[in-house]
What does this fold into?
Amino acid sequence: MKLAVFDFDSTLMNGESIDELARAYGVFDKVQEITNMAMSGKKDFYFSLKERVKLLRGMSVALALDVCRNLPLMNGAKDIVDELKRRNYKVVCFSGGFKFATSHFRDILGLDADFSNILCVENGILNGDVSGEMMFGDSKGSMLLTLQRLLGVGIEDTIVIGDGANDLSMFKYANIRVAFCAKEVLKKEANIIIDTKDLREIIKFI
It folds into this structure.
């Protein structure tokens, strides 16, 4: 068995979930500024996540779900997942984004699991709080280690694919580290760099 772990926002999905939620709620400019700083490693991921979600306070769950279920997948997303599974990989998504999106696309893409965060809700309205499995800068690395132990998969049989600073923590636990249309901070730690927005490019390296 082998393990492939994808980031979701700007990797499996073409864009950032929270930016699209903010666009629909009319707070896009404020949220995008914080997102860009966080993905470039200039702002702590945990505090940036809390700041951005707070700006969504008052948004209806119905609108949030509609946005998250209509996000655009990256070119080649289904193809690369299918190819990796054909090669006996367990394929998983780690996301600093939200279950509203990752659980929906887990089923569409045929992923084995998704780990992400939860937008807290009161009476059908987002209350501005967030909780979950991927809230910290080192969350992805910690979860990857857990999965490797559970599955009996080593570093040599692990591929990770991401684009931003919060993907750094999982790079140290994988033999193949793909920076996909990524920020410079991540490219420095990658051994494969892909600057074309097509996930099928990864097939050349496996």
